[in-house]
Amino acid sequence: MTAQSTYSSSDDFFVNTADLSARRPPPRSKNPVVLFLKRPIVLISLYLAYIALIFVKWDTLKDWLVADILNRPASEIGNGLEAMWLALWVALPYFIFSIFNAAKIQLRLRIPFFRNIDFLRDIAQVVFLFVVVAGLYTLALNVMDNTQIPINWNVVSRHFPVEVSEGPDFTKEISWLKDIPIIGNRLAKADVLQPGTTTRALITGLINTLRAVILALVFSTILGVLIGIGLLSNNWLVRNVSAVYVEIFRNTPLLLQLFFIYRGVLGILPTAPKDAYKFGNFYLSGRGLNFPKVLTTDSYPYFLMGIIAGLIVGIALWRWRLRVQDETGKPANTLIWFSTAFFGLGAIGLVLAFVTGGTPFELENPTLDRFNFVGGSRWSAGYLTLVVGLTLFTAAFVADIVRAGIQSVSHGQIEAARAHGLTSNQTLRLVVLPQAMRLIVPPLTNQYLNLSKASSLAISIGFYDLFNVATIVQNQTGQAVALFVILMLTYLVISLLISLLMNIINRSLQLKTR
Amino acid sequence: MRRTFRFVLALAVLLSFVALSHVVNDRNEKSAFAQAEPTGKLAEVLARGYLNCGISAEVPGFSYLNPNDNTYSGLDVDFCRALTAAIFGEVTDTNLVFVSLSSSERFPALQANQVDVLMRNTTWTFSRDTDLKGSFGPTTFYDGQGLMVPASLGVASIDDLNGASICVQTGTTTELNITEAFNSRGFDFELIPFDDAPSSIIALEAGQCDVLTTDKSGLAGLRSGVADPSLYVILPDTLSKEPLSPMYNEGDDQWANVVDWTVYATFQAEEYGITSANIDEMLASEDSAIQRFLGVGDPFNSLIGLSNDFTVNIIRTVGNYGEIYDRNIVPIGIPREGSLNALWTSGGLIYSPAWR
Amino acid sequence: MSEKIHRPDETFYVAPKEPPASRRPPALTIGPVGWLRKNLFSGVGNTLMTGITISLIVAFLYELITWSIVKADWNVVNNTMRLMMVGLYPIDQIWRIQLIAVLLVFLSGLGVGVWGGNARGFFIISLIIIIAALIIPLGAERIEPPSIRFIVTSTDPNGPILFVGDEGDTVGLTVEPIDDNAVAKQESPFTGFIENSAGASSSRALWNNAKAQVVAGKLDLSQYNLQMTVQLLDSKGKVLDESLSTPAHRVVNFEFKLPANGWYIVQVLRDDTGDAIFSSVDGLQLPVAAARALPNTGFAWVRIDGVNAMSAQQADVEQRTKTYGGLPTIQCPSTAECRRQLLEENVRYEGSRTFKAFLKTQLDPFLAEIIQALIVGFVVMLVAYSLGNFAKQSRNPASKKLVSRAAIIGWVIFFPLSWMLLSGFKNATTLHPFLELPQVAQSLWGGLILTIVLTFVSLTFAFPIGILLALGRRSKLPIISLFCVLFIEIVRGVPLITILFMAKFIVPYFAKSLSDTELLIRLLVGLTLFTAAYNAEVVRGGLQIIPKGQIEAAQALGLNPFATNVFIVLPQALRAVIPAIMSQSVSLFKDTTLVSIVGLFEFLGMIELIVNGQQVYRPYQREAYLFIGVIYFIISYIMSSLSRRLEESGAGTVRKMRKA
Asked: Cα–Cα distance between B29 and B167 in angstroms, integer?
């Protein structure tokens, strides 16, 4: 009945101290300092500070190893040995901590450390940490030794000698940098942000990637939803054609589709600009799509103010009408109220603009020069291929996800909605889609991430996206390591942002239960 | 029965891994042949038993792989063969490995020692010599950067090309030169990058760009491969000097000597009039300079770390520089007379240092 | 309460087979008409959509089919089949790849037979396809080959044209002078083959030049007064027949029945100077026509009917040499313009192709190339399937066990065995002569076989690594869990192409000994790590659905954590995620195409090399891409339908939901 002070049994060799501690709880310290130190966040920050200290004092430590312990010249110390020394220091606190714990348990519960499972687990982790840190540091040192060219992080402020023909011109000053409060002036003078540097070229590449990715995301979602609904259509033909589309685009590689569009489809359009197909002021040729550029004039701010005012008032009215509906049960007619406010105020803004200075927008049309179009905006063939290819490919996956999501809503819901007298449209809008969205959003996030990563295939069709620009820099300067680190970090950040955004949307769709 | 099955299965897995290790490790086995004198890279190549030669495999006239019969041909390919003959005595099926590299991967491959020497129509420039930690051998082809346009455009020179779309290969000096040339003239232009030469000529044929720019020899080679070469004209402008030379890693003087003097051997052979046809008669020549060059008599040539008759092996395998040129460059339409690639005695720059 | 009191002698009401007319459903709702009304035309909107969709589909399919038959040239596929399938693998060692393919088909058949369901439908469809592939060439034999044209001008007569013929073939030679300027302005005035080789003096280049000059007004074709003799010679140089074309007697044609199998030569002689164009055949002087008085200018085509364009594939060349002997040797002033054979690569079809011409020139050669592989594959698979099925259905359970274990051992041995077969041994001759397998460098592997090697090897190694990562991520040890999470998230957050570039450029720096590693091995490591990270996520999903009760029960039984994982958790988790892993494998199969950007020539990369690198194939990119698109589609579709079948058979989580 009473707990024994020592626990020993012949058929349980390894002892889990957690079980035992439940029988005889350890004395809890009431000291506030100790309690504060035991919080995980404090421990972690202390550990990180310790690691920083190691890196700062690394030379001293190395000298200690070289001179006092091994007594050999520094050049003879292999990379592996140096890495193991670092790993030893990094793993040391954890090791001391685990020995300390094991000693405490031994004193209190009289369990020898070689039977203490917690201690064994800690030792396993210490060994793992040691091996991983030593291995990674050995690799890093080997890389730095074996590259003929020393790794030079200043490659980002070097002059970028090649023209990147698409996206914002990186040889111009960024005019709005100085306007940023506090750090604006320092930023404007920074080496890496001067016109013509590698960083600016990489930023141009990044903006090109984002242009392609955002457009492809929007279009593929729209197309995917349409085809997903087509997959569930009553019409046998539409259903099967959608299924054929989905099967074809899911089972062929994306690179093949991009090549086909770039060479096979865009390749058969006439390439000389003078032969381009003309739709009004839009010119489509094998080199790309040239269309009028929309420029804003001086009277634009008035129009913009009208639009913004319309938006704010419209949204306020929308919320007010919903509240009215909740309280009194009268129909909300939100759309009518919103549209009236929005368009009304927008029209007032437009009239103001006209009165003060003329039209708020003007178009700059592309005109045919000797070799190409000048003026106007242009989407190059590579950009068009990337957007169209990514759209078609991702839409097939999105369609399947949408179909699975809508089908997952149990039929009873639809029957109940119809029984209540909701029309087909209202059922879809108010009952089916909100529930289906819950199942659709997580796999959709996956597809969006895949799309953003697949945009790196632009290198094979000659579009200057981030990856392409980075490889150009790597070719000309030879700094492979530095550039790939920058590249991977950028893609990780993009993926993180997309996941965060989709997670927010996901959370807002979750059932708000008690 | 179950135990037997598990035993047999385990045995199968074990045996297959053992066998696999043999196959995977085979490449690193050292052959029995070793030389006392060679050091560094030369020793490594001899021990390995084959030479890794980096080429392009896509440029007609310089290094071209014909997929139908898997044969390599070109000026750079012939120099690879010359180097192999100098080191191993002759070129066999196994002692010369061609590594096909695109313009963007050639330097990393050389720096990582995946190839021993880069014979890939690489321009000798200041930044490559210093920044990329490479060294260059003697120039095997003096070239310049040119522009090729469709004849139908009616363009006479580079000054007519404001606003043009330009096809170019990434990772090359042509990329930099064309940017500079157009920027200095204040022209608008659009660069369309390609990773390899054939894609760029396809784009020019399809009309996706107005101009193709690369070395003039490359332009001639690419033009020779199109259906109707008369549709394209190479503009008279030369945008830059492009001395194409072999490239190898810095820091190994013996290897540098081996590569350099292999190239010089072909120049010197042409100067002495030795060809692959008359090598046997020349071996019996009375001229002491020729005797010394061909390794007849004193072991003079073996100072470099190769066999004494390495020049004879080179000439037997590929001939002298004139033969190499005629075999590879003349068919793509670049005549030698009057160009920089003529022998120095004919007013060109092909000049070997004294062989003594 | 029943109304009718049932009396024993009354019969029950049995409904008639055919309901009476008043009780049948309305005629318009049953049968095919009813189906149409319900599915396609059920409302205004539906009818409209059906109309639009049908018109779009019909237009699209019509365009596609007419383009494929009439305009497309599929010879880019026919002629480069070997390159696409095995890359630059040495031709005399291809038997090793064929052996691997046969083994793979055998093991697959065995597996399907022992473990799979009823595959009868698959075999019936394959049989139908094979029979069709055998019948079509028989029909194509009887179709007349399209005519082949070579141009002759006064300054550029074409060299001797060589072809092979069988005894009894009738060859027709015609001289077509072009004296009508309107012909030159047409898009394609001829149907049939025109010489298309690169070079300024090829028929195609000369014809294009002349067309341009006629359009520009610089050339007037009606001023024809070209005179020439067209001769047919045998391989020894003996003239079999000849005919003369003069301004007075312009069009010349004659037919000739070939006396024996062998090589034949068509030669065109200019007449004004009396010179033969080429000097000798096998040392014999060719006969020369006498000098004529009129000057010799103009433009004409020599048309050859009844002869097939020959294939340039090495195997076909060897076959031809064996049957008909080697090329007759001709001495010419320059090698470039000397020998012209009627090779498929050097001639291009002009004009709209008829269906018959399509059968004869494109479908027939394609079927001839694949029919042998199809038949062998079919027979081997049938044998293996019957073996497996027989064992599965036999009454003796021991035989099923034996066969299934043999299959497992076979699969396990297969992967290292095929790798050994593919790469060979370095010191081949010192081994037992039976095992002589000369080493094939990995840089020569290419084509479809390389895609399959990449997929299989990555999958095999990524699977255990993925499981370890998933278990590590769920581990309670914080450092291991942190490391696994970091690894998985970083590898999943970057594009595959970045990892491949890193594998190619940075891995050689990791250690001096690694710099010599083959590119293939490096890229395999990159692909494996990438797939392992994705697999880890998939397996993690499977691990999450294991009810906690399982683990608690295992602990109650006294199993340590290792045993719990291996015997209780993993089997359930893996069975649940097999469909997801299969779909990940399909993804990997498609992602191997990225390897072509980094320099390995797998299937897509090989096509790029062929279509970009060889001038003759550059206009045919769409055909090449469509072909490999179809191949990728077939293989991916088979893999994903396999996974769907697995899912339906209860391998996935669906089983749990059904039972609950």
From this structure: 45
